[in-house]
Design a protein that fits this description.
Helix 3 (61-110) runs antiparallel to helix 4 (120-130). It is built from 5 helices and 5 strands. The protein is rod-shaped, with a radius of gyration of 42 Å. The longest helix is centred in the middle third of the chain and has 50 residues, at 61-110. The protein is α+β, with helices and mostly antiparallel strands.
């Protein structure tokens, strides 16, 4: 005789276990190797659930999420690349302006003791032009050459501004030299 609480025999393989689960979940008839089949009560049949519930609205959900992640990563990557381009352009401009004001300071110091008047801003503008930038301002303060340059960034139309100063470390020595001449 079979009791009402008898459990079916354990399946031998995982495939048989899945088959047994799906049979129990969808069929109101309980099957056992040792007991004859019996009909489940209407309450048991109503409470029977599939092993994993699925809903029609979930179809393609993973694809949409994957596409959203790909779009977000693409946006982050493009913004990062643009930021690196802007920073690279700023560094290039700063290096070119540094060379330009050094050329202007060199012109200023080379003119000490000569009859020719120094043209440090002209020399700075020439070197800046050779390096692909245009000076916005250039002025001489004592023996220092101070200049700035502005340009638009290659992306986002940002304004990049760089400044540079070049001259002797101790301008008092140069003033003493020029007074003695």
């Amino acid at each position: 005789m079979c009791s009402a609480n008898a459990r079916p025999a354990r399946p031998a393989s995982p495939a048989e276990a899945d088959n047994a689960r799906s049979t129990r979940a969808t069929s109101p008839v309980e099957v056992s190797d040792t007991a004859p089949a019996r009909l489940a009560s209407p309450v048991e049949a109503d409470n029977a659930r599939p092993a994993r519930p699925t809903y029609r609205g979930e179809a393609g959900n993973a694809t949409v999420r994957a596409l959203a992640v790909i779009v977000a990563l693409t946006m982050v990557a493009s913004l990062s690349i643009s930021a690196v381009r802007v920073l690279g352009e700023r560094e290039r401009m700063q290096a070119a302006l540094d060379m330009a004001v050094l050329a202007g300071a060199s012109e200023m110091i080379s003119a000490i003791g000569s009859a020719a008047s120094p043209q440090p801003c002209a020399a700075a503008a020439k070197v800046a032009g050779m390096n692909g930038i245009e000076l916005a301002t250039c002025e001489v303060r004592g023996f220092d050459v101070v200049a700035s340059a502005t340009a638009k960034a290659p992306v986002f139309s940002l304004k990049i501004e760089v400044r540079a100063r070049a001259g002797p470390r101790d301008s008092e020595i140069l003033e003493a030299i020029t007074e003695g001449l």
